[in-house]
């Protein structure tokens, strides 16, 4: 067997790359290094602007040049960092040398010693991870999630009044509407979205063990805690004042747990839609040129929802692991988080891929009203709930003396199919008030949906 040229090991970087490529801007090694360069440059500029530790202000052009260089971080910098790290065997030190080299190129060598000054590697790393994760959520994951919610909400409104047989424990139950059942998922997902939006992206910037010791040794007259807070918040993050060498990662655990919860709701959506397709409630719209089966040409398979299930499970395997492990660090520092955090992009990648598949899958289905109607018409026994409830109310109001109405309906309906004629005969023989009797006689499985359609109004509050 001949050797293959180098190949991507993960399908996220191979088969599915196009669906998740936006995450690479932030959650790849290059994205992390760009964020590190950004933090190092901003710290250098902050020190010079505030004349701290001997720094003198840069000119407006020098500041702009440094920021533009950091923002345009590209292949040349990626290659240079890789070459430097082969010698340093330390990723953040390589970034420091890269920034120093840029200062020399700009004839700003006098400021070289301000690069990475008073910083432990984790000061740079924790801020960089917070920035990259924040941007990945806001710029890539969130728009996909929003699009899925919007499409479910659109279909919920479209099918607001379309009656549908419910199934509890897989058995025919009180009818609902297809729109209301979809609206349940919209409501659940929007609740999770609010909680995800409330997550703080915390950052620390306080030295080797979170004490500002080196800072105060170099300049005891500066309020370094205030400096740290201003710098971290200036990056668009929330400041964490009490840490060890590392930021404690609690915010990451909270975020990943909430993303994982959202994934689980989406998984429930995918399995429900798959099941509705299997019983004909939804028709799949054939995609031109697509093949459902290599041997059965008639098939249109619900592969988008199956793909989503698998990727949501893979996403949660990573996110659950991160949420469980990142909150523990031995004493003031260990490096287990370093390896773990490099897989953040994998967790988000599988979630984004699932969202992409769900969105495409939702765009390839249509409700089948005739199937829904036929199922309802075949299950008149579901009106047993309405009849026995009305009888109870009539007994309470003194308009009936029927004893144990539940038992009477159980004997009539349990474990057997009955039709409209059977129920009409049963209702006409009931000892109840005439108004109640007429309400029951007018009822059909398709009209026994309560306020299901009106409940969608709560999505707009």
From TrEMBL:
It holds the Pfam family ASL_C. InterPro entries: Fumarase/histidase_N, Fumarate_lyase_CS, Fumarate_lyase_fam, Fumarate_lyase_N, L-Aspartase-like, Pur_lyase, PurB_bact, PurB_C. It catalyses: N(6)-(1,2-dicarboxyethyl)-AMP = fumarate + AMP; (2S)-2-[5-amino-1-(5-phospho-beta-D-ribosyl)imidazole-4-carboxamido]succinate = 5-amino-1-(5-phospho-beta-D-ribosyl)imidazole-4-carboxamide + fumarate. Coiled coil: none annotated. It is an enzyme of class 4 (lyase). GO terms for biological process: IMP biosynthetic process. GO terms for molecular function: N6-(1,2-dicarboxyethyl)AMP AMP-lyase (fumarate-forming) activity. Residues 15-308 form the Fumarate lyase N-terminal domain. Pathway: Purine metabolism; IMP biosynthesis via de novo pathway; 5-amino-1-(5-phospho-D-ribosyl)imidazole-4-carboxamide from 5-amino-1-(5-phospho-D-ribosyl)imidazole-4-carboxylate: step 2/2; Purine metabolism; AMP biosynthesis via de novo pathway; AMP from IMP: step 2/2. The keyword Lyase applies. Residues 329-449 form the Adenylosuccinate lyase PurB C-terminal domain. Keywords: Lyase, Purine biosynthesis. Its EC number is 4.3.2.2. Belongs to the lyase 1 family. Adenylosuccinate lyase subfamily. PANTHER family: ADENYLOSUCCINATE LYASE. This is Adenylosuccinate lyase. The lineage of its organism: Bacteria, Bacillati, Actinomycetota, Actinomycetes, Micrococcales. The gene is purB.
């Amino acid at each position: 067997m001949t050797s293959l040229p180098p190949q991507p090991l993960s399908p996220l970087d191979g088969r599915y790359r196009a669906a998740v490529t936006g995450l690479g801007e932030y959650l790849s090694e290059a994205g992390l290094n760009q964020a590190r360069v950004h933090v190092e440059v901003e710290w250098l500029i902050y020190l010079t602007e505030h004349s701290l530790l001997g720094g003198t202000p840069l000119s407006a052009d020098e500041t702009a040049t440094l920021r533009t260089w950091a923002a345009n971080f590209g292949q040349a910098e990626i290659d240079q960092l890789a070459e430097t790290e082969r010698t340093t065997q330390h990723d953040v030190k390589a970034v420091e040398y890269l920034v120093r080299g840029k200062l020399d190129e700009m004839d700003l060598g006098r400021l070289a010693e301000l690069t990475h000054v008073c910083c432990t590697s984790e000061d740079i790393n924790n801020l960089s991870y917070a920035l990259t994760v924040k941007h990945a959520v806001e710029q890539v994951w969130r728009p996909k999630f929003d699009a899925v919610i919007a499409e479910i909400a659109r279909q919920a409104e479209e099918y607001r009044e379309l009656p549908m047989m419910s199934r509890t424990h897989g058995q025919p139950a009180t009818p609902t509407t297809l729109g209301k059942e979809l609206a349940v998922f919209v409501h659940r997902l929007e609740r999770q979205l609010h909680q995800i939006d409330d997550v703080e992206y915390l950052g620390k910037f306080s030295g080797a063990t979170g004490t500002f010791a080196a800072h105060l040794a170099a300049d005891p007259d500066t309020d370094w805690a205030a400096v740290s807070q201003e710098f971290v918040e200036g990056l668009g993050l929330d400041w964490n004042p009490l840490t060890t060498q590392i930021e404690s990662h609690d915010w990451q655990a909270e975020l990943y747990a909430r993303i994982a919860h959202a994934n689980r709701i989406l998984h429930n959506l995918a399995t429900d839609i798959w099941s509705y397709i299997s019983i004909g409630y939804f028709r799949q719209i054939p995609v031109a040129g697509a093949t459902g089966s290599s041997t059965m040409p008639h098939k249109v398979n619900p592969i988008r929802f199956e793909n989503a299930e698998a990727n949501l499970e893979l996403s949660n395997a990573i996110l659950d692991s991160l949420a469980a492990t990142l909150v523990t660090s031995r004493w003031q520092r260990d490096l287990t988080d370093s390896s773990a955090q490099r897989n953040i992009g994998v967790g988000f990648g599988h979630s984004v891929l699932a969202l992409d598949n769900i969105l495409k899958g939702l765009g390839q289905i249509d409700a089948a009203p005739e199937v829904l109607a036929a199922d309802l018409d075949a299950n008149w026994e579901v009106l047993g709930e309405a009849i026995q409830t009305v009888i109870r109310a009539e007994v309470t109001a003194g308009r009936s003396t029927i004893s144990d109405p539940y038992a009477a309906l159980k004997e009539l309906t349990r474990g057997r199919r009955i039709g409209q004629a059977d129920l009409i005969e049963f209702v006409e023989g009931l000892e109840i008030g005439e108004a109640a009797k007429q309400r029951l006689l007018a009822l059909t499985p398709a009209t026994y949906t309560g306020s299901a359609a009106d409940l969608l109004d709560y999505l707009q509050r």
